Amino acid sequence: MGTPRDTASTQAAVVIERLEEEYPDSTISLRYSNRLELLIAVILSAQCTDERVNTETEHLFEKYDGPEDYANAPQEELAEDLNSITYYNNKASYIRSACEAIVEEHDGEVPDTMSELTDLSGVGRKTANVVLQHGHDVVEGIVVDTHVQRLSRRLGLTEEERPEAIEQELMEIVPEGYWQQFTHLCIDHGRATCSARNPDCDGCVLADVCPSEKGDSRIDLASGEPW
């Protein structure tokens, strides 16, 4: 079992410093060329790997050009175009509805505020944060995906379970200048080392400060379950 630093802020600083050294080129892995493509890619990424989304959107973005195309697409056709994505029927419906609103209420442009984005179908705070950060260069929160949720609990940065509550705690301890990069670092580390089911604690650069480290700890703080 690792020994976390005395305060959550100090623990967060150690986590960021070490992960930056481990993943110096950490950035978003979804592929897109404009704000609408980013929005659609993030909607599709819910409970689906970025790798799968990138494979699917390669042909999707060639077929559909602009929000009008998605808004006017038959539900069945768009769903078929997404059929290798998890929950593709629902996501096709979200995309069509969101694009209808973008056309009718936002002059065809992806909105640039949290409230307007979260009013769109299929867009929660996590998705809106990604679009704001990477589409509009607006950073007003921390994207809490499954990797951030898992790592922040394992590392003792929060005991909260809901993404919204985790985000609020992280915003208090992660320096604002790192709000965007913190997510990418957690995602890279979650994929490479700190996986959900079988984390490689022996090869982890954070093992000595991680209270969930499998060497002595009996509990995975992410799930609350025994290892």
Automatic annotation (TrEMBL):
Residues 44-192 form the HhH-GPD domain. [4Fe-4S] cluster binds at residues 194, 201, 204, 210. It is an enzyme of class 4 (lyase). Its EC number is 4.2.99.18. It comes from the Archaea. The keyword Iron applies. InterPro entries: DNA_glycosylase (IPR011257), Endonuclease3_FeS-loop_motif (IPR003651), HhH-GPD_domain (IPR003265), HhH_base_excis_C (IPR023170), HhH_motif (IPR000445), Nth (IPR005759). SUPFAM superfamilies: DNA-glycosylase. GO terms for biological process: base-excision repair, AP site formation. It catalyses: 2'-deoxyribonucleotide-(2'-deoxyribose 5'-phosphate)-2'-deoxyribonucleotide-DNA = a 3'-end 2'-deoxyribonucleotide-(2,3-dehydro-2,3-deoxyribose 5'-phosphate)-DNA + a 5'-end 5'-phospho-2'-deoxyribonucleoside-DNA + H(+); Hydrolyzes mismatched double-stranded DNA and polynucleotides, releasing free thymine. Keywords: 4Fe-4S, DNA damage, DNA repair, DNA-binding, Endonuclease, Glycosidase, Hydrolase, Iron, Iron-sulfur, Lyase, Metal-binding, Nuclease. The keyword Phosphoprotein does not apply. Pfam families: EndIII_4Fe-2S, HHH, HhH-GPD. GO terms for molecular function: 4 iron, 4 sulfur cluster binding; class I DNA-(apurinic or apyrimidinic site) endonuclease activity; DNA binding; G/T mismatch-specific thymine-DNA glycosylase activity; metal ion binding. Its cofactor is [4Fe-4S] cluster. Binds 1 [4Fe-4S] cluster. DNA repair enzyme that has both DNA N-glycosylase activity and AP-lyase activity. The DNA N-glycosylase activity releases various damaged pyrimidines from DNA by cleaving the N-glycosidic bond, leaving an AP (apurinic/apyrimidinic) site. The AP-lyase activity cleaves the phosphodiester bond 3' to the AP site by a beta-elimination, leaving a 3'-terminal unsaturated sugar and a product with a terminal 5'-phosphate. Belongs to the Nth/MutY family. This is Endonuclease III. It comes from Natrarchaeobius chitinivorans. The lineage of its organism: Archaea, Methanobacteriati, Methanobacteriota, Stenosarchaea group, Halobacteria.
